[in-house]
Amino acid sequence: MYRKVLAALFLMFVSVFALSAQSDEWYWNQPISKIDFNGLKNVKKSDLNGVVSSYIDSPFTDEVYNDILDRLYSLEFFEDITPYAKHASSDKSDVLLVFEVVERPTIKDINFLGNHKIRNGELRETIKNKTSDIYIESKVLIDERLIRNFYLKKGYNASYVTHSIEETPEGIIINFEISEGSSSVIREIQFSGNTIVSSRALKRKLALKEVGLFKDGAYQPSTMEQDKQTIIKYYQEHGYADANILDVKIDTTFNEEKQRDELTVLFVIQEGAQYTYSGLRISGNEVFSEKELLKNKKLKEGQIYNGTKFQEDLQNIQSVYHENGYMMNEFYTVPVKDSDRHEISYDITIKEHSRSHIENIIVKGNTKTKDFVIKREIPIEPGDTFSNDKIINGMRNLMNLRYFSSIVPEAKQGTEENLVDLIFSVEEQSTSSVQFGLTFSGATEQAGSALPISLFAKLENSNLFGEGRTIAAATTIATGEQSIDFSYSQNWIGKYPIAFHSAISFSHAKTASLVNFWSPNLELVQNRYYMSYHDWSTTFSTGLSRRWTPDYAVITLAGGLSTSLQRNVFDESVYVPVETTVSSYANRWGVSNSVYGSLSIDNRDLNYDPTKGWFLNERVTWYGLIPNLEKEFFMRSDTKLEGYLKLIDLPVTENWSFKLVLAGYTGLSTIIPVQNGINTKNALYIDGLINGRGWSEAYSDATGLAMLSNRLELRIPIVPGIVGIDGFWDAAAVTPKLQDMKNLGIDDFYYSFGPGIRFLIPQLPLHLLFAWRYRVEDGKPKFADQPFNFVLSFNIVNY
């Protein structure tokens, strides 16, 4: 009602304005050129732009106005919003929409009263509200529940939490008033009726634990219910279909010394007999045959019954229908037990309905990212048949954007029986990053005193204005090398998944090159003496790529062009470089161009931190486009193959599983020179940072026109999306020519292995490695004189 009154007042105000301007209802259907806010104090305008910017250039209608107002009120930042409109330009052809807002007060302080067992710091980490946040009553009530749940987790089952507020000119003071009560801990867990499974084995399955040196033993009633189901599930996985928890008896003793209740918990178990599975019978299926429905079944006839595998088989049957758009089917499952033969089977009756179609696609939780940026990544539209595969592909596409920390899809009944609303609830994460650190600059031994260490810094916003655009600036500073780079990219052009990128870089390097030297006996020496020179260059690159997203992979076809201006500064009257490519740009600006094309097929579940799937990429680059102007003409080919296999996925807690992922990579790079050879800096080499990690000094010995790089990693995510540990093994080799690859032996490779720490945050793509290095001589490993090396690398994501 309040909003309707506001809407009526707004229309009256605009009408009066329109009459005074002698332009009757001028605002209707005029484009909105700008939306502005007056009265902002604590709320950032940038937080609001992501909400309203999608309406810019839209015709001003009553529906658009109400939609904007609803969105602004849903943020709960404002107590009052008063809108008005005026002409945005002198020709009065567009609308400037202004919202006069009254902000809610901010939180000045948060106090905790009555907490004697739990520290204030722990409670502050538990709640969501912080000082200086906008005060929203509903969020404070959520914090009440969070504090209460925290106490329950610690075993304070009689705890109670309320809050009160104090209004001051500086803001709101929130006082959480806590009644802790006494805590309850589990002194002992016992079982009766278990003859098949030992008490020790059952204890290991429970989330509840006995109090001990490293366990708080907190008693939580909700966890008790979970543990009862865990016990039943464990028995049913081993064939005991009749297993049940008859009772849970709790004996309580108050410990005066520790002022807490100590519990003895007794689970009374009925095991029953062990059953053999004798199959299932399906009726009512007309769309799919029984063979099609059971093609992925895991539980076979004659096996010991496993309740978990049977449920997976039932879900697979339902998935066959869901993947083909049959969302409204009904499934009725009836167990049939033969108590004499100890066999169990199931009768499944399916009531089929017509296919479901998407009525609406709704996005929730996005305050910065615009709706169209999200919806365009979902390969399904209103009117399409519902498809699980397409939703999964959409999830993968959205996660690969790295704009969101959480994406939850949900299907709800639409306005009619076979219509479905598809809802994506997202939780945004920061897309602005500051990266800095140390890395290897690529300096060589010939470069003289230049240290092979560089300072690296990068600023990036990967979701500029919430429109899916990326802008970045980076710099590298070292004693022998300096560079600065600017780049821009976007993943879509209009309604098409065509990515565009462009970049410009400026660099300077003090490097070295072999020079011709005539000995006193007039012998030409070309492999011993070096000169140092300054290499100045500017490079501009641009490219386009087109993506296709069939169910099995993401296919990307790309191409681009790069143009460089280069100048080498040295004394030509003293030095004559061996490499003509160095002398060609002596004290003058020269141009070099390259053009590339690539094709990739990406089957990974995620491109940033995959756990399964594979990736294949072939890129061919041609250097040199203008005869008589450019000095280098050659072709480079880069072939990359990645594979990922999840070896272990064991649930440990409700929110964390122990995972072990095997990752493999093979890369083959080759260069085919056309004329005059190539510059040394364009040759292939083991850098010790990406290829042959740890072998940074191998540059001088391992440079050529063909390189094979292999690596294996065992990855363990410790905190998903944050940090993980891994073990790695690398093997890399370089040969002078591609033809020499066929003669490679194990003694030609540079090997390294060791542990590593991998940061999984997109804004901090660091990989810290401890590398032990060795070569193979006479069939035996020979470690380097200094076998251990610390390597600071980066998580390189291949696309």
TrEMBL record:
Any single GO BP term: membrane assembly
Record PROSITE patterns: POTRA
A Pfam family of this chain: POTRA
Highest taxon in the source lineage: Bacteria
Keywords: Cell outer membrane, Membrane, Repeat, Signal, Transmembrane, Transmembrane beta strand
Leader sequence segment: 1-20
GO CC annotations, alphabetized: cell outer membrane
PANTHER family for the chain: SORTING AND ASSEMBLY MACHINERY COMPONENT 50 HOMOLOG (PTHR12815:SF18), SORTING AND ASSEMBLY MACHINERY SAMM50 PROTEIN FAMILY MEMBER (PTHR12815)
This protein's name: Outer membrane protein assembly factor BamA
Organism: Treponema bryantii
